[in-house]
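Render Phosphoinositide phospholipase C in 3D.
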Amino acid sequence: MSSLLCNARIQLTDTLEQMQQGTLMRKVKSKSWKKQRYFKLQEDCMTIWYQSKRTGKTESAFSISDVETVREGHQSEVLQSVAEEFPPERCFTIVFYGRRGNLDLVAGSAEEAQCWIQGLHQLIEVATTMDQREKIDQWIRDWFQKADKNKDGRMNFKEVQRLLKMMNVDMNEDHALRLFQDADKSESGTLEGEEFVLFYKALTQREEVQSLFQEYSEDGKKLTLLELTDFLREEQLEDEGTEELAMELIDKYEPSETARARHVLSADGFLMYLCSLEGSIFNPQHRGLWQDMSQPLCHYFISSSHNTYLIEDQLRGHSSIEGYIRALKRGCRCLEVDCWDGPNGEPMVYHGHTFTSKIPFREVVSTLGKYAFKTSDYPVILSLENHCSMEQQEVLVQQLKDILGEQLLTTTIDGHVPSQLPSPEELKHKILLKGKKIGRLEDTLDGPGDEAPDASDDDNGAEAEEERRRAKKDKETLAQALSDCVIYCKSVPFRGFQEARSHSRPSEISSLSEAKARKLIRDEGNEFVRHNAWQLTRIYPSGMRADSSNYSPQEMWNVGCQIVALNFQTAGMEMDLCDGLFSQNGSCGYVLKPPFMRDKETLFNPSDPSSREGSGPITLTIQVISGQQLPKVANSKEGAIIDPLVRVEIYGVPADQAHQETKYIENNGFNPRWDETLQFQLHVPELALIRFVVEDYDKTSRNDFVGQFTLAFANIKPGYRHIHLLSKDGTSIPPSSLFVHIRITEPPGPEQD
């Protein structure tokens, strides 16, 4: 059985063997909660479980594929709080994907800590580089371990029946027994090792893929290079270098060496291709950086977080550095910091006038310095809500300059007053401060502002007087040194589009509440789009959202608002849209707006789709064919099997908002077949996001969420595609997927003479 249990790519080192023997360590939750737990790496080298020393009861287990990274030393707030008690060389933090809390551990010695740190790094490397076949093998191993009740490395029919229930399969006993007996080659009445793999393969036979394969294969056994090329051209609409692509796919996905040498693809290889990244609905070319990054900042949607320091709700939530680390790792490029006077002259970050906990500003800046450019090279905007006294503002600036050094932008990139905002490319590796500023940008720069588009000849006297009065008032509450660090993002109150246009200062930015933004969208949609073609706008959630809930960012993107701040800590449809939009372009946090939203004189208004120049609406046809290994619903009853349905939701301009769903399939989360076709009209496809949601149908109460995947219409690949589902937290749940066929039909072009 061991061949099945341990991943073939894992070399069993002394380190891993030591981890398999188990280690006693302290699990630390706070300064006062430090309890001993026994940690042990399982035989499969992909699962770790730990149990209480006192009770001997297994507390919890986690899979290596859930672990994002391991941090050494005192690199979490919890471990910093016990720094005096435990030296850094004995401490480490296991960080999980999604919103799951960290696991902070203290080993008995530096050697034991190193053993676990190095071993975990080795295993994470294996888990993150697994291809689709290895992921499925791993999935089989996980299930085998869960169902092998007596841990003898074999499985009798009773254990197999239990396993089927666990796997979301409702199969009649005769059929299950037939599959079991076919796989039991040794006729021992149990399945072991490769026999279990055979059983699993029979169970996961994909008829819908098989019939597609037969359609293109003349002998029904293989696809020749020509047949595969035909399939790629006709079905997958791969029109460039199709033959080279076919060769590449055979080399990459054909398991049989002889077939590879003959340049043919077997049914197994064909399925592997369809389940791979190349066979996914998301265009692989758009995963990396694929957009022009040399346009002004205001021409991009920018991934933005609200109250970044909170990891729970707005009133009693825990403020944490983890909020910043998580947001930056997700490619977020605009972070919020609420600063207040703290004890000992040290500014603190928290949500004012509430019971949220506090973090020193210095720690936030250090975290920013460390993580700002790990996921993306493009600029980070630090939105500073400054409530500090003059004295602590001076400390604030000093900390920013000392810790960030060259990363902090303190002057314009060319020493001149800009006639337009610089580009993400020009601001690479820079941190920009957004906040109030005394007077105008040209006052900060040496020399007269001859480049300024708002030269004084069109300033009337009353207005100039008003500006002077405002600058004088700001001087009383704002430290000059802090003001001087605000360059391209001077916060100004919004006084209407006309006034903004008359001053024409691209380096100013207004923040609007979601309600104010909605009113402007309703009353002055086109003006709003035009304004956002040359100046930045930030939108933030209503103060009434004490539970940290989110508003839909789509309506704000529809008018070109760039900085649409969301509560990253709150999972749900709104964050799915955010993740969906920003998962393209190298997840760099910047997505270029469509051309009709980058033109200051545009006629586009989202409430009137015909204002977008171009042909009529396009038709998106989605055939929802089948589902594979859907996860069980969280907290469901033992043995409950889901009744899945698929809903496709379109988010975009109001005329494009729509959703349709399939019927539900009773008692089958393992391989449901829907074979239903849904069709949508898209008037402004450039702004549309498509969200695929799987739910467990419930006739008496709300359906339960099973999984989802969201992407921008621009990133969809047509043809037969798999959609790899994500959890509520946006983390992957392999090998759960949907199999669909996508067709995009453009309207007929204008008649040619």
